Every structure is written in C-alpha cells, then in structure tokens.
Amino acid sequence: MYILAVNPGSTSTKIAVYEDETPRLVNNIRHSVEELAKYPRVIDQFEFRKNLVLEALKKNGIPFRFDAIVGRGGLLKPIPGGVYEVNDAMLNDISHAMHSHACNLGCVIAADLAALLPGCRAFIADPGVVDELDETARITGSPLMPRITIWHALNQRAIARRYASERNTRYEDLSLIICHLGGGISVGTHLRGRAIDVNNALDGEGPFSPERAGTLPAAQLIDLCYSGRFTKEELKKRISGSAGLAAHLGTTDIPAIVAKIESGDEHAELVLNAMIYQIAKSVGAAAVVLYGKIDAILLTGGMAHSEYITSRLKERVSFLAPVHAYPGEDELGALALNALGALRGELPVQIYR
C-alpha cells in the first residue's frame, strides 16, 4: 500500500510517503511570511500548498500513484476519534470552520489529490476536535458556555499506542495522562482508549504555554474586553498567539530561555517555572478524574526535548505514576498508519455527518 500523508501547519506543509509501514520520503516544505501574506484567508492557500506538494513529490522522484492520501484533520464540528473518509459534508463544514487554521487544508488537499487517481481514497484521522468527553466534564458554571475540546488528539493517541506497544498491551486497556507540550499545551485523561477529559488548548483553558494564555481570571478578561484598549482581533491574539511565554519573555525559544536562566535571569526563571507549575497542576487534576489509578504519565511535544522542563515536571508528578518522555511528535507517521489500518480493514472507517 502506498500512502501520502499531508500535514499543513502555520508556516510549513509536511508530507510523508509510506510503503506499508515504511517511510520512503519525509519532507518539510517551509513557507515564508511573504508567501503566505498574499492570501487573505488560510483556506485561500489551498492551490499554493497543493502544488508545492506535487512539486516535492516530483523533485524527489516519487511516482504519483497512491492507494490513499490522508490529511491532518481540520477544526470541524466535534467528533469521536478515529479514521474518517473525506466526504462532501466534511468539505462543506471545513469551508465554514469555527476557527481559521492551516490544519483545515488537510482534508481539502487530500480530497483534491485523491480525485486525480482512480481508486485512491482520501482520509483524515484524529483531528484536533476529537470529542470523547464524559458528560460530567462538559458542564461549566454557565449553561451558555459548555466546555469544548481542541487539542493534540493525533499525537496524543499515537504516543499512547506507542507506549502500549512497547509494553505488549493495548491503548484500550490503559489509564494514561498525556501532556502534549508544544506551542499550545493539552493535558489529556485517557481511559481505555477514550480521552474522557482534556483542555481546550487553542483558545483559553488549561496551563499557559509558549504561545497561549491558558485559563485567565474571567472578571479581569471581561474588563479588558470593554476597556477600549484593544480590538477584538488584538485581544484574540493575546489569548492565542502573542500570549504565554511570548508575552512574558518576548520569545518562545525554550533553549534560549533556559540559557537566560543559567546566566542569572530571575524573571525568566520565575515565568518558566510558573508554566511548569501550571502543567503539573493540570496533571494533578487529571489524576483525580482517574481516581488516582494511573498506569503512566506521558510527556510529548517539542518542549519534551527540554531536560529543564521534563525534570521539574517529574519532580512534581512522579508520585502519581511513572513518567515517560516521548520528545517531539510523529503526526505524519500517525496519519499514514491510520490510513494503512483503514485500507487493511484493521481500523473502522467512520462517516462524517
């Protein structure tokens, strides 16, 4: 089986070609700010990015023949996890997505390229809107604002399966807390193959992160909204994008921040340690959801490369369960293996409605 995986990000489009379980090409196509500035909306970048994918395949001598093309899932309506075949309902919803994000291009590119090949199928897998919350977890103090989840579902579930495989067991038999530590931070509570509780890592819940503000004092936020100091779009940036470490320290570069700390910058130390503290508090809250019966705590994402961060997190939470780090992410591999499982009939293909 030949599979093309496409993962559009804010400033890059990552692609991988798999022959069964074996990667034959992994390529990161970077986009400059100037290139992307030509397009008023993210969805308008579709043809530009699609053509770059085709050029990259040609440049690397990859024949354009695939059994499936799988894209990173976009910010659709909430759906259970798993593999979905791209259909008209999905493409219609993604054109009116609740949030503008490059990941929305994944299913569009997959569908368009698959249509060029007889018998080729287009999929997405575990998009960021995967919603498997227990009903109790949805309730807030205001009926106007139930909790929603936007999180790193693809990588968290891939890491969970990897951990399970290493221990000759199944993800569906484990109780796990998984922290994706990236530009945004999601802390998922996984019980027997379902993420029964997880924060909205995109726009305002959980620990603050390199780019996001996390949970904020509600009254102060309301006052700021009516202060006249910022436009609506400016305030949104102060929640997601120009928030967190970026707002406090002017950078999201963890090695650079650690270097400042080592040179005696006490403010940098205070802010970074505060972020670690908030992550640990979220892990503690997740432990309560599982009644303290936790097989493991898994740390993943780009910040899991930082020994400064992982060592301090382990100090705070290792009394709850063994802590294991899986630095980085392999979303392309996860996409490809989900598509392969669907083609082989090992994973059910769900219908988006």
UniProtKB/TrEMBL annotation:
**Main location, first listed in the record:** cytoplasm
Q: Supply the alphabetized keyword list.
A: ATP-binding, Cytoplasm, Kinase, Nucleotide-binding, Transferase
What's an example of a GO molecular-function annotation for this chain? kinase activity
Q: Which SUPFAM superfamilies match?
A: Actin-like ATPase domain
Q: Where is this chain's protein located in or outside the cell?
A: Cytoplasm
What is this protein called in UniProt? Probable butyrate kinase
The record's listing under InterPro entries reads: Aliphatic_acid_kin_short-chain, Aliphatic_acid_kinase_CS, ATPase_NBD, Butyrate_kin
Question: What start-end ranges are recorded for coiled-coil regions in this protein?
Answer: none
What is catalysed by this protein?
butanoate + ATP = butanoyl phosphate + ADP
Q: The organism sits in which domain of life?
A: Bacteria
The gene it comes from is buk
Pfam families, per database record = Acetate_kinase
Q: Which PANTHER family match?
A: ACETATE KINASE, BUTYRATE KINASE 2-RELATED
Tell me its family. Belongs to the acetokinase family.
